[in-house]
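Practice record 12: protein with 2-(butylsulfanyl)adenosine.
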Amino acid sequence: MPRKKEEQQEADQSASRIRAEELRAQLDFHAYRYHVLDAPEISDAGYDKLMRELEGLEERYPELITPDSPTQRVGAAPSQLFAPVQHSDRLLSLDNAFNDDELDAWYGRVVKELGRDPALFCEPKIDGVSVAVVYENGRYIRGATRGDGNVGEDITPNIRTIRGLPPKLDTDEPPSWLELRGEVFLNIADFEKVNEELGEQGKTLFANPRNASAGTLRQKDPKITASRPLSIYFHGVVRADGLNLRTHSETFEYLQSVGLRVHPDGKKVTKLAQVKAYCAATNERRHSLDHEIDGVVVKVDDLAERADLGATAKAPRWAIAFKFPPEEQTTVLNDIHVNVGRTGAVTPFAILEPVRVGGVTVSQATLHNPSEIERKGVLIDDHVVVRRAGDVIPEVVAPIPSLRSGTERKFKMPKKCPSCGEPLNFDEVVTRCTNLACPAQFLEGIFHFAGRGAMDIDHLGYKTGHALVEQKLIEDVADIFFLDEEAIATLPGHKDKSVTNLFDAIQRAKDRPIDRLLYGLGIRHVGSTTARDIADHFGSIEQIAAAGVDDLLAVEGVGRVVAESIVEFFRRPKTAELLEKFKRAGLRMSEERKATTGPLSGKTFVITGTLEAMSRDEAARRLVELGAKVASSVSKKTDYLVAGSSPGSKLAKAEQLGIEVLDEAGLLDLLN
Ligand code: IVH
């Protein structure tokens, strides 16, 4: 080897040695925080990244591998709080695949080793806490954490409190020894309840359901564990004396038959293409599940084939975790700015060092309100955990105090509105700018008015709205309809075709149904469904404007707060002026109370919870297009409840009334 190259390689190797040591120390620290303290500081994705870097270095320079390297073991040493339990079979970790290529590579290795295409089994990867559970002669006798994989912690009384974990198996011929592996987790709704209670007691909140499950499982007092509704799904059997289980699918059926919970979405497949379809479909649905998952575990189904494949020091070769894009990341919070909304609400938001999370690059995140910042203890310049879970708007979850340098600063809410300079009102929970002529509120109002659920004026976004206000071409939203092409041509970036486009879009909007106009007015508490119910009931804007609180209360789904807000809005002199202008501009102000006909006519729907594929408004619009009526509350007249994730009380009411419930997949079927 030429001398120069040799020197370079030596230098590279020594740099790698130093970096590997660094990585090992970091990984040890984070594993300890995760497994022992239940207080992880970095996201799973952050941990995986460090681990991959170390794996890469060790692959290049195998002499750097130490016996205690995090790449060679699982988890962290058990804590001293609980008695140690020696697992009869090591609790391993799983290798990850972050994309289809890595999945292909794993499958290729399996096929090569076995010499045939094996049957596979897919299950959601539950984002919970790994446990080992033993039944002796059909009775629950032991539950333990993973610990370092060999020795875990005895948490038998805590696991006993899990609802859905039978103290006795439902069989007359139980195996003499049944040792299981499973995942303990908290449903998202239960996690939120736990945090709500902790908040009321002034205690520190858990950052996510997994931390809450871990913290709950490792309580010294099982009464506290029992007070929080943990759940469990079993995903494997390591010893079953006296049973003859040959495949994982058979195992699943057996567990179910004796009363042990397995994931309802577990599925046997025979082709890799089916695995990919399963992973894609599960990723799509992940936010409509009531618990968190972070991927899919793909396993060889046949237990004899598994034995042939064996395991590395860390993970079985017969399984792989197909990981979804991470929804939590760590980054630096560079500053906190405030935004003034349509109703004057002033909300702080974080300016972040851009980071990829939930599949997109995020540079801003909501902080909700100043008390939320206080509650979370977030400072400017902090390292923070950012989350974007299904919802479009990312949020700052928590700071990472141990990474502070001392230069971090507290955020102070401005005393004056950043848009109009008027003093802010701090009397309510929400800080508000109460100046009705505030430019920021006006701009948000225009954006809402021209938005898709309202008047749907194409080509009228923030930039154009801003220019219209800036150049004093409009003073209220009605002025939009008096803009001529000459005026539009004075806007920056507008000439020729784009002038006509905007002009035509404005003319088209004059004929929108009146519920869209009503919704577009941005009356507090009037969403698009309520607007539709009210428009259906009264038939004209004039009638709505003349209605009293009692008249409005007669509309199904309208309560007192909504009714009072509407009456107050139409009582304002400014509103009367606005309506007058709408009329003059030729907007449609009344509606024949026509029953739309279509395949769904005569059917009443209520939509609740979060939908994945579209917003609730859009779903309502599409149902109405098919002739359906969409109401805002469940009653005996409701035919179907469409329930997205976190459906809340409407679902309970629908179930009580025996109303048919559609999940999002059912809705999509119907719409298509
Ligand atoms: S099978 C290695 N199936 O993920 C033993 N594990 O990251 C085979 N996990 O330690 C595990 N959901 O605690 C399996 N459906 C599932 C799972 C699952 C969550 C956990 C498990 C494992 C960890 C590895």
